[in-house]
Amino acid sequence: MLFINPPRNLEEKVKNELEIGESVVWSASPKPAYFTAGSIASVLFGIPWTAFSIFWTVTAAGGVGAFSKGLGWHLLFPMFGIPFVLIGFGMLSAPIFESRRLRNTFYVITNKRAILFEGKGKVKIRSFAPNKLTDVFRLEKADGSGDVIFREFSTKDSDNDTTHVQLGFLRVPNVRDVEQKLRALARVEASRKEV
């Protein structure tokens, strides 16, 4: 049995989540990374956004200020740029937030289900019964690490933009072994129902 201790802030949550007779088959934390697909996209978009926002704000402060000395309203022009600069800094810091999120995530496979723990103060706990593990697949990297996905869905926002969501164990070592453990759990449950 492989059991890796969860992050300190999740220890109590993991212990309390396990039911009587439930034993841990596998557990791990995702490998923290600053640069994931989502955070790289945010940074690449954030660089020109932030550069232009700073340029516009500085230009508005200097240009308008020199043009209309003595008038107090000229300070409003650079203030319009401040929210855009802050949004840019938010996009540039996406890798830091992503790494922090991964450090506060823990995955568990028990003899009864798969469980995801996410968060620091307010912890989100997602539990997947074996009958929900029928469409498991993996995204494997050359070093054997990767993602095991067991739920996919799409959502649409108010603008009718589609967002594709994948739930599973992300950035785990030996991803093939994890996929096999999840498939075995689903098979055991299926054979129990047949009996």
Structure description:
The chain has 195 residues and is an alpha+beta fold. The protein is 44% helix and 24% strand. It contains 5 helices and 7 strands, in the order αβαααββββββα. It has helices spanning 11-17, 37-67, 76-92, 94-103, 175-194; strands spanning 24-28, 105-110, 114-118, 124-128, 137-140, 146-156, 162-172. The strands form 2 sheets. It has a 4-stranded antiparallel sheet with strand order 1-2-3-4. A 3-stranded antiparallel sheet has the order 5-6-7. It is elongated.
Key features of this structure:
195 residues, 4-stranded antiparallel beta sheet, 3-stranded antiparallel beta sheet
SSE blueprint and pairings:
Blueprint (H helix, E strand, L loop, with lengths): L10 H7 L6 E5 L8 H31 L8 H17 L1 H10 L1 E6 L3 E5 L5 E5 L8 E4 L5 E11 L5 E11 L2 H20 L1
Antiparallel strand pairs: 1-2, 2-3, 3-4, 5-6, 6-7
Helix pairs in contact: 2-3
Concise structural overview:
By secondary structure, this protein is an alpha+beta fold. Helix content is about 45%, strand content about 25%.
Instruction: List the total number of helices.
Output: 5
Classify the beta-strand content into a percent band.
15-25%
Weakly predicted, low-confidence segments? none
Strand arrangement across the biggest beta sheet: 1-2-3-4
Major beta-sheet overview:
4 strands, antiparallel
